[in-house]
Amino acid sequence: MSSITHPPEVGEPIGPLPKEFAALMRPELPGLIKEIRTEVTRAYPVYGRLLNGPNSGAIRQGVEQALSAFVDRVAEPGKSSALRDQLLRKFGRVEAYEGRELDTLQGAFRLGARIALRRAKAVGQQYQLSPTLVLAFADALFAYVEELEAVSREGYVEVLSRANSEVSAQRRRLLHLILAAPPLPHELPRLCETAAWELPAEVTMVALRTPVPEHLEAGLAGDVLVDLDVPHPHLLIPGALTPERLTMLQAALSGTHAAVGLTVPLTQAADSIRWARRVLQLVDEGAVADAPLVRCEDHLVTIWLLSDAPLVSQLAARELAPLDGMPASRRDRLVETLRVHVSTRAPAEQVGEMLGVHAQTVRYRLRNLDAHLGDRLADPDHRFALEAALRALHLQSGGPAPRRRT
């Protein structure tokens, strides 16, 4: 590995780190990210709350991207940092919306840099790197932190300059606080007064797809809280989605798709938006039919059944284990017949119509299934587990849920 033989003079620009250094740094990233997250949330508990809130995935992605971009720059100095900058500006926006000074975020950046430098020193000892190279790394790292601070400041200043009024800024802060991990903060009623917003007993959350139309906010009622600057934009509608509210929402959403969460008590707003976002994911996965406005209340069983896909696979493997010794094609036919049978409770003739086979074929398959799964089919717990697992697997494959016989 090449190395820097002479330390730079004070005030002299730091030269690029050897590209080979990236190969030593990259394997350290997963452990380093975990360590930084632990230390930062210990030093700044407010970030622990955010990491347990509805935007936790985006925050973690931003941290990972900031560290990965540094390593990428070492390996490939001209590589674009557009994604990193986009996420960092959103960090700055969150700080502005929640009413914090940038000192908190900057302190978190610098703490992360100190942890990274500590890790680099350990790597330097492990690979017997020259002290000059570790010093060059430290200089490059803290220069990089200044760059992170500058980019996040752009998002922070953007929010402050764009806010049309104190009421607008306070309403965005209200929405962030409502969606943060419970309990609701004590200052919420006071903030509601400042924002001229009546605190509702119930709310309905709406998850939006991006890009969001520019006209959307103008088409919403004055009491709807909006956040369009986070990675997953969303709305809060006070109360239930009445016919009048639905008409308003459909008109405002012209040009984009959205998912409506359940109407829940104010303290469960984060659950409502989580379910709405999950429905949008299920649309992408083909388990829920796409539509301009998808409602969670129409897909509750699907959300539940597909809440943990790996667990569903384990459950199905356990319940269908007696069929494992069969040829794959025969096993698949029996499993599909079993799925329709336990889901519909229909007679062999109707099951045959659904599967496109003769009723006698269905009876033959059911006898085979009874021979292999008889004890499980007779046990209520196993039968329920079978039906749940088979329905979930069918939904994962993009198939519609069968209709129960009436």
**Major sheet size, sense and barrel closure:** 5 strands, mixed
Predict the CATH topology of the largest domain: Globin-like
Average pLDDT level = 84
Number of helices: 17
Helices and strands, in order, run as HHHHHHHHHEEEHEHEHHHHHH
Low-confidence stretches: 1-14, 401-406
Q: Architecture of the largest domain in CATH? A: Orthogonal Bundle
Q: What does the overall shape look like?
A: flat
Helix content: 55-70%
CATH top-level class of the largest domain: Mainly Alpha
Number of beta strands: 5
- Beta-strand fraction estimate: 5-15%
SS-based class: alpha+beta
Can you tell me about this structure?
Residues 17-179 form the PucR-like N-terminal domain. This is Helix-turn-helix domain-containing protein. This protein has 406 residues and is of the alpha+beta class. It folds into 3 domains: 21-162, Globin-like (Orthogonal Bundle), CATH 1.10.490; 194-305, no CATH class; 309-396, no CATH class. The protein contains 17 helices and 5 strands. It has a 5-stranded mixed sheet with strand order 2-3-1-4-5. Helix 4 (56-75) packs antiparallel against helix 5 and helix 14 (328-344) crosses helix 17 (380-396). The chain is flat and about 80 Å long.
Features:
406 residues, alpha+beta, 5 strands, 6% strand, disordered N terminus, disordered C terminus
Concise summary:
This protein is α+β, with helices and mostly antiparallel strands. The chain folds into three domains: 21-162, Globin-like (Orthogonal Bundle), CATH 1.10.490; 194-305, no CATH class; 309-396, no CATH class. It contains 17 helices and five strands.
